[in-house]
Every structure is written in structure tokens, then in C-alpha cells.
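User: Can you help me understand a structure? I only have the sequence.
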Amino acid sequence: MREAPLPFVSIITVNYNGIFFLKKLFDSINNLNYPRDKFQVIMVDNASKDGSIDFVRKNYPFVEILTLEKNLGFAGGNNAGVKLARGDYIAFINNDCVVEREWLINMLLSLRQKEKEGLKIGGVGSKVYFYFKYIPVRIVMEDLSPQKNESDKENGYYGIIRQLRIKDESIYQDTGNKADDKIDSRNLLKFANNSFKYVNGFFDLQKDLNKNIIRKIKREALIAVPVVETGKDLSLEIEMAFLKPDTNLRILCESEEIFNLQGNDFYGNEEALINKGIYEGNNHKDLNINKNSESKTGISKNDVKKSIGSLLFRKFDLKIPEKKIVHAKDMINSCGSMINKSFYAREIGYESIEENISDEPSEVFAVPGSSFMVKKEVIYETKLFDAKFFTYYEDIDFFWRARLKGWRFFVEPRSIARHFHCGSGQEWSYSFTYHVLRNRLLMIYKCGWPLGFLKNYLSFCTAALINFVYLIISKLKGKSLDKIDIMIRVKIFFEFFILMVCFLGQRINVRRGSIVSDKEIKAWQKNF
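Assistant: Let's start by predicting it. Here is the structure, written out as C-alpha cells:
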């Protein structure tokens, strides 16, 4: 039987001050294994100020540019782009992604195969890697003191890491007069240094003035180091302090030791005694604080800073040999999204190594919002993103509404995109925190069953009240809190009275138009 001809596809990306990413994205799209006359590329620019529009016009004339007068966010930008889409299939890709040659064709073929199987398939997503490959590095801190605290063997922390970065010489090369290449290398290094994965054995304490997170280290810890360039050694710089001076520090890469140093050698005898006095004076106990969560109150940063300030930090260099770099592996950013019983979303396979992920297409509650394809008829029936969401949870909201209409979604592992992740935004900034907290509640209100919304709403209100009371008490005691979400929660608490009225009509339409039971949606809720 003769195969149907390939259809025309519209590819949409939304850009906001992302000029650094656009060359990599559009170069990869221009290299797709798909007939050039069978797809259009639309860039929706959210009022960028970094020269993105002129750059794309000059270098990528095949890209259709829709210029918006103000930033409408990821949701509003994609909605605007759909109005220009001529294809019956629409592929969405984040501006901070790079796609492989088979990215588009494999999504399309997978979608068509599911149609042949008689499924009401609405869309297919990609397997999304983090942009960089990673090499695992293990830190081992051995307590050499004659008197060992039994509790330290299980729960103790042996050091604090204040900085871990790739040194400039790891990627910098003399490019002559190619100023753009130098800027690109610097930006790549900047993103790499923000892309270390602290897999286990670490505890976040606070951020320094440069927004770097200071972390406590357990006896054994694992870091995934991003590989910027192969074919050469990778030079790293670590700044850290020992909580226990009588400690031997070993750093291993693929079971081979690449660094070894004892605390007394690290500081010198006099400095080691100072740190020993700090430890024996129990100042380190001030560092045993809880991570923030929705139900926990804020933590005063003054005590933490005082404790860290009393420690002696030192920097040292180490190299990961080239022979180890060649074994770097891909790390998963997303193989789709799952939700738990509180309707928090989590990326499937997040930060897992590629070899642990199946190569077979799998059905998911929601496909990766950073890279996916849907039929235009799904958008006609369900509408696309809710512009009020602006960014975050707008994709889960869309796929939930589409599922209620009976549409199903799959991830195709042979369609691959690589993602810088948060290239145009900062995790747990004010905007990030506000939209994540508010939009999750708004999504449940629009799509969920009454008891599910009520339970989550009351939980949110209780947490907001507890945090607000704790803030007042801390202010009266003259303490400051490094926790921006307290006032955000209070704002959302009052704002939601208006939102529930404004979105009541949408909730009624979504619930009345559902042909899928809540029981089927509940079956997708996982425990995490």
C-alpha cells in the first residue's frame, strides 16, 4: 500500500531575549531531514530588546517573524503563532533547544502509526535531553579523627562547597577576529557552569551574592559534570571548606582517583586547628536547617551566614582527563510529564542517564512542553494555552483539557531535542515562583473535580497563613527571611477570590464538555 505524502507542518518557537540560543536552534531546524517546502518556521518575538529580530532577519530569511508589542509569555506567544500556522500539524519547540535531524519526521511518523492503530491521538512529544553531556564525579570525605561520632556515619556532613566551575581554559580558544565566536564561547561556559547536577549527597543552604547555591556535603556525594568540549581535559575549580579538619578528601571519576588531599594539608596546621575549634565549638550545628517546602516556614539566613562566615574556604584545581570525557552520557530532561495526587507535575526520567530509558513509544499524561507536535484539530476543539497562565503549567492545563476530550498523547524516543533548560527564565525567581504556585491552583480549579480542588486550595491557604504568621514573628524579633514565596502566597490568596469568579465560566465549559471520567484522570496520578 502506497504511503501518504508527507504533510505540511508549522514549527513555532517563542523568543524573549534569547539571541544566544537562536543560532543553534535555527541551524538545527535548517538541517532537518524533512522536505524544505513541507514546513514553515514561525518565531514569535515577545518584545525582545537584545537584537534577536535583526539577527534572525539577517541570518535566517526562511523564518517568519511575528513581532509582539509586549511580552505575552510562553502561553500568549504560542497562541499568537498558531494564527499564522498553515499546517494541519503544528510542532512547538523552545527557543533554547536544538533538534536532531530526525526530530520532525519521527514525531510525525509516530503520530501516523498511532492513527493507523485506531487511537484518538492528539499529539506526540520528543525525548528531551539536557543540552550538555555529563560525566559523573564522586566526592568521598573520610573522617580520620580518632573519635568518631556514630550519628555522623549516617547523617553527618563533612564539608561545604561554595563554588564549582569549569575554568575558562577548558573551552577558550583563540578565534582571531571572530568576536561572535568568543561571545558564544563565553555564553556557553556561563550556561555550563549553571548546569552542574548535584545528584545526591548534598544539602542546599543558601545563595551567595552571585546567586550561587552553597551546599553541605555528606561523606559521599555524586556530581554530574557538564562536558562543554570533547578531545581535551576538562579543568575544574572547587572552593570548599571542611567541617571536620581531620578529613581525607578524595575525588573520583569512573572509579579512578583524580584528586586526594587531607584537611591538615589543605589548610596548613594552624588553619586546621582553627577549623577544628569551630567544629568542636558546635557552630556547624547552625547549618542543620530544613529545605523549604509548601508546608514549612522560612529560615533565617543570618545564622547560616554567621556559621559559614566562621569557616575557612580554599580553592583548588583538578582535571578530568580526556580519556574520561569520551564516556560522557546524555541526561534526560523530559520524556513527558506526570502528575501526583496534589497535581504537582514532574518530568518523567528527569536527570536520569539515557541508558535507563526505554526506546519504545509510551503514552504519557502530557508530552514535554519544550518539544512536541499536535494536530491542529486538537487546538480547534480544545483551544491551545490559556493566555492568563503566561508561563508554567500552561502545558499541563492544555493536555488535561485535551485528555478530557478523549485525546491521547505519546512520547517518541527517536525524536530528540536538546534543551538548555530555563534559558529565558530563572528557577525560583519571583516570576517563576508566582506563576508556578498560582497556575497550579488555577489549573486544578478549571479542570479538576470539586473535592480535589478544595483539598489543594485549603492546603495552600493553610500554608500561606502559617508562613505569613512566621514572617510577622520574625520581623518582630528583628530577623530577616530569605524566602520570597511568603508574600507571593499572600498575594495569590487574595487574588484567587477574583480568579475563581473570572474563570467560573471556563470551569463549567471544561467540566461539561468532558467525555472522559475523573477516574481515568486519577489513574494517571503517581506517588512522588
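Now, to help you interpret it: The chain has three domains: 9-131+333-419, 133-325, 430-522. Residues 136 and 224 are 4 Å apart (CA to CA). Let me know which part you'd like to focus on.
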